[in-house]
Fold this sequence. Notes:
The complex is a heterodimer. In chain A, helix 7 (174-207) packs antiparallel against helix 9. Chain A is α/β, with parallel strands linked by helices. Chain A has helices at residues 2-16, 19-45, 68-75, 89-98, 129-147, 152-159, 174-207, 211-217, 220-252, 272-299, 306-330, 335-342, 347-356, 362-390, 400-406; strands at 54-60, 79-83, 102-110, 113-119, 259-260, 263-264. The longest helix of chain A is centred in the middle third of the chain and has 34 residues, at 174-207. In chain B, helix 2 (88-98) crosses helix 3 and helix 2 (88-98) runs parallel beside helix 4 (132-144).
Amino acid sequence: MKQIITVFRFTFAEAIRKKAFLIITSIVLFLILVACAIPLISGKISAPKDDPSKTIYFVGVPDRLPGAREAIASLYPEAEIINGDATLVAQYSDEVRTDSDKAIIELTESEGFPKIRVTAKTFMSFIDVNQVSDVLTPLFVREEMKRLGASDDLIELSQMTLPSEFIMAGNMDLSGYIIGIALLMIMFFAIYYYGYGVSMSIANEKASRVMETLIVSAKPSHVLIGKCLGMGLLGLAQLSAFLLTAALGYVLLVPKDFTLMGMPLSLSAFTFSSAVLVLLYFVLGYSLYAVMNAVCGALVDKIEDLSSAMMPVMFITMVSFYVGYFTAISGTTNIVSKIAVYVPFSSPFVVPFKLLNSDISISDIVISIVLLLTAVVVVAWFSARLYTASVLHYGKRLRIKDLYLQRK
Amino acid sequence: MILTVNELSKTFGEKKAVDRIGFSMDRPGVFGLIGTNGAGKTTTIRMMLGIIQKDSGSALWNGKPISRETMSFGYMPEERGIYTKTKVISQLIYFGRLRGMSHGDARKSALSWMERLGVLEYKDMIAEKVSKGNQQKIQLLATLIHNPDLVVLDEPFSGLDPVNTELIRKLIGELVSDGKYIVMSSHQMSTVEEFCENLVMLHNGQTILSGNLKQIKAGYGHTNLVVRTEKDITPVAQECGLELLTKRADETEFKIDGDEMAETFLKRILAEGQYPIKYEIREPSLHEIFLEKAGGPK
């Protein structure tokens, strides 16, 4: 135990004072603060201005659509509506082709009805042909019904839309969804990045030939555990710094009335128990991948060979992450999603999202944690033996089968 | 205290790396493990210290199996390695702590050893900024920091310049005076000849010679004659049946069958008016014994 603590302390102390670590941490902390300040800054920048920022050339004969220009103006208040000349459409098109803040709305006749044609630079332009159509169509219907002598009641009836309401029966809201996706990304980054740190640290020790001195001083399994713990704490410390900065930025910089896609951003999904469980999944998920990465680090004698040695673990990590990601974004409850909760490699990515969105039962959580914990113990035990067999091997890279045969 | 290595064997795949090697040390001193590269020296050491699993045999210290947990040993591997980006003092304390020392004791011991080996001024330096020779000394300090009873040095003089070689040579003498048991592996026979009373000679994993160095040499008798004269005496030597071994700038070495042959040759050159400046009859060197045993070029 004493040796594990010694390796753990040394690994942590060495890693935390590395220049690269300090620089990356500082940059990410700065970026988090900038990200938190964006709503504030954009709010100030996009404050109502006297000068419109967009231009819409309105071309066509709106005789059968009186009030069309006003309707478009109210739909796009940030745009200046300019009555265009039909003969200059080609010139307007040239402008639109290079300027995403400009668009053309043309009203022409087609088979006795007005036809709406919208021209914009790309499909991501500020103007949407369906929105324009939704605004102009009722205008046209009203005018046509008036012309055909329909009563006012009938005209009003034709203009109405049925009152509607969307009720979410589950607890998933947009905040929980977005934070869940963000958490899934963070879990992947943390498990992959800090696991990579373990393998890099071990590969460095092997390449610099300090490994033999090290393992005559301490049991290889103690070195392995101490190293994984050291890098794990480093990851936890760095992640905590990021999350704390994000929380501070949220409190101090994000405006109180800030909304995301029209919904207020809320951290209500983060209860104490869900936070503890997310932390547990991080610790166990990291442990599972870290011990496998440690074996990869021990397999190579040159740092440049590390990437290829890590391919199998990287493949498992990527597949597990994408299973978690697609389960999250598609909200599916299919068989893959259900199995992914129990599979130890994917559960650290899948379960935290489901936890934040109350999309998982307590029994599933318990089974998932027990299976993950068992996998950590089994994989760590097996990895310790492979690690011991491989740390002193130099020359031709060993295969897992060779390691297994030499594991004594 | 007694070190007993008994019938250690190890096979890697089809290759027998070490075959039933055995030796013992019952008092402080230096024991030599000699052999060419790939002879099985490092594998023997690793088995002896429990770093790799042995196929058979035992390595005991005072009757108990040697392991990290049961005894205090220091091992300097042939492949030197230190943490290049870490301060010298920090890594020495780290290795001391791994060997069960407290932080304070490890620091005190590290500083004391650093002073002894003349590297104290580098204590707060990042190891990669220290010269290669001094890095080797730091490696040796990591081996000795916990004051082990048994010290195993794998090719300790490899890559050292003459000044550092002399320093380590002196240190080995001091360690023996301090009562340490030293097992030293080397393929440099002159080094082993200088330090080791007893040795094992390995070739392709097999023990080809073992025992007390003096007795081994005495067993060969007087086999070499070194002569320095003003004129070339090689033709006379050939006439007397002496085999030319080496012709150096100022002296010539011959192989002789015994003292009688040397005496006959001496009489001949004196009769011809050649008075030797140097005339030395000696036992074969360890290098020559090794070449003979291992079947290398004479």
